[in-house]
Design a protein that fits this description.
It is a single chain. The chain is an alpha+beta fold. It has one domain: Nucleoside Triphosphate Pyrophosphohydrolase, CATH 3.90.79. Helix content is 24%, strand content 44%.
Length: 141
């Protein structure tokens, strides 16, 4: 079995007292966060920063040091067969909201937690989003 590690972040911004989360639509039709594979020698935090810069063009984010969640799943790839994947998710607040989307994604949107419930998301991503929202509310992040 092949093992993969990725890193990314739940990115949010606050506008008029309401939190909006950045979601990217992947070619498979599901919505997720900016994330990607670790490169040789990178830490998970370094990979998250790099992937965010590459996928959506955001820099200068404030990462909350107390928040880190992991998602894990096993899937079958036509190229690799069975793959065990672990993704490290961080929480990052941004003040700018203009996105420069990479060609890896179909589109993007800023959405409230309620709005995300109408989007097609994998259970792991939904769980991480719910935990991120609870963290923000608890810490008024």
């Amino acid at each position: 079995m092949r093992y993969e590690r990725s890193a990314g972040a739940v990115i949010y911004r606050r506008h008029h007292g309401q939190d909006f989360f950045l979601l990217l639509k992947y070619p498979g039709g599901y919505w997720e966060f900016a994330r990607g594979h670790l490169e040789k020698g990178e830490t998970v935090r370094q990979a998250a920063h790099r992937e965010i810069r590459e996928e959506v063009g955001l820099v200068g984010l404030h990462f909350h040091p107390q928040f880190e969640e992991r998602g894990h799943w096993i899937f079958t790839s036509s190229k690799w067969g069975r793959v065990s994947k672990t993704v490290h998710y961080f929480l990052a607040r941004v003040h700018a909201y203009h996105i420069r989307l990479s060609d890896e994604h179909i589109t993007w949107r800023w959405a409230t937690l309620a709005q995300t419930r109408r989007l097609r998301m994998f259970p792991n991503a939904r769980m991480v989003l719910e935990k991120a929202d609870a963290f923000i509310r608890q810490h008024d992040a």
